[in-house]
């Protein structure tokens, strides 16, 4: 098993992409999705809060604590406008500015977006920002992308809500062409390029793109066009069926292992023996039952559990310490560059 290739800190920055590293050795993918077992990520902000707006008290310190504790990834949100009715403003700060700060304040944790709303940003701006964070972090970026689910945002940006699915596909194609080719010829409804190039290029030959939810797209298109799937928390059997279908669609396409991750809200109770109780998109549960649930999720093939702490009734610093001591050692970040083991849901037939 080989170790992922990591850029040398003292090397010149390969802004033109003349010596990009192989995607199969991508250090962020290796840490977040080693294959064959589950890791754990954290969705910002790392605090429990009522209402839509977090306090952001000690927000950088909590992410540094999560990195030390053994979280594989931290995921930042793209919420351009406050919609009080939606109930969550994310980490409030612009995701690209925030990722720039996290690049300087962390050392190894994977930095992910969950997710960039592609139709609300020009793909050239997204590509420039993503490649910049990728270079500055040493190749630690995972790009979660979304079509957008907050209708009030689209008229504010002069965008057509009804056409967002098509705009999303056009944006993703434009994004990939300008980052994966030098001086590309682009003819798109979103713009034209000839005789010019976008710099910097990413550290590896492409930036991993992971779809969030369905995004009004066909599942086969998601399997063919992205590098992984970030999904929600349906009942266990339904999730097992989702994963089985995903493995069928992504197995043997020549593109390598494509992970499946689950985002779950967590309220870890003070009583470690408390049984799970359903909350919005997640659970209020004690440590012992939560560990058992995580093992069940791992058994059906989930590659990363992405924890959202919004509904936590305890201080998240305290929760992270408890997870670090009793839970995270069972699900450590990956370190090997040799990924690609597909796991079959337990008790289900497969090829």
From TrEMBL:
The keyword Disulfide bond does not apply. PANTHER family: ALKANESULFONATE MONOOXYGENASE-RELATED, C2H2 FINGER DOMAIN TRANSCRIPTION FACTOR (EUROFUNG)-RELATED. Residues 330-351 are annotated as: Disordered. Residues 54-251 form the Luciferase-like domain. Gene3D superfamilies: Luciferase-like domain. It comes from the Bacteria. The keyword Flavoprotein applies. Keywords: Flavoprotein, FMN, Monooxygenase, Oxidoreductase. InterPro entries: Diverse_substr_monoxygenases, Luciferase-like_dom, Luciferase-like_sf, Luciferase-type_oxidoreductase. This is LLM class oxidoreductase. It holds the Pfam family Bac_luciferase.
């Amino acid at each position: 098993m080989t170790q992922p290739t990591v850029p040398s800190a003292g090397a010149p920055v390969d802004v033109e992409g003349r010596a990009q590293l192989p995607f199969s050795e991508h250090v962020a993918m290796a840490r977040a999705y080693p294959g064959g077992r589950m890791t754990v990520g954290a969705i910002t902000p790392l605090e429990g809060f009522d209402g839509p707006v977090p306090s952001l008290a000690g927000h950088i310190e909590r992410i540094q604590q999560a990195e030390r504790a053994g979280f594989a990834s931290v995921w930042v949100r793209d919420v351009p406008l406050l919609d009080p009715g939606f109930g969550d403003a994310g980490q409030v700060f612009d995701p690209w500015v925030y990722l720039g700060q996290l690049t300087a304040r962390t050392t190894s944790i994977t930095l992910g977006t969950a997710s960039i709303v592609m139709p609300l940003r020009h793909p050239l701006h997204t590509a420039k920002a993503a490649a910049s964070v990728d270079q500055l972090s040493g190749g630690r970026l995972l790009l979660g992308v979304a079509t957008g689910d907050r209708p009030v945002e689209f008229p504010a940006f002069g965008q057509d809500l009804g056409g967002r699915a098509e705009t999303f596909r056009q944006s993703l194609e434009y994004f990939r062409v300008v980052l994966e080719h030098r001086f590309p010829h682009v003819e798109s409804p979103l713009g034209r390029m000839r005789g010019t190039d976008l710099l910097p290029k990413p550290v590896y030959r492409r930036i991993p793109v992971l779809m969030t939810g369905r995004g009004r797209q066909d599942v086969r298109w998601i399997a063919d066009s992205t590098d992984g799937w970030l999904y929600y928390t349906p009942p266990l059997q339904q999730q097992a069926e989702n994963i089985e279908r995903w493995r069928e669609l992504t197995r043997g396409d020549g593109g390598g292992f494509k992970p499946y991750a689950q985002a779950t809200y967590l309220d870890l109770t003070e009583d470690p023996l408390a049984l799970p109780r359903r909350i919005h998109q997640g659970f209020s549960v004690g440590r012992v039952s939560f560990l058992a649930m995580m093992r069940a999720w791992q058994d059906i093939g989930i590659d990363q559990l992405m924890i959202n702490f919004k509904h936590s009734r305890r201080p998240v610093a305290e929760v992270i310490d408890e997870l670090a001591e009793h839970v995270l050692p069972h699900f450590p970040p990956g370190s090997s560059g040799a990924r690609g083991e597909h796991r079959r849901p337990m008790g289900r037939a497969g090829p």
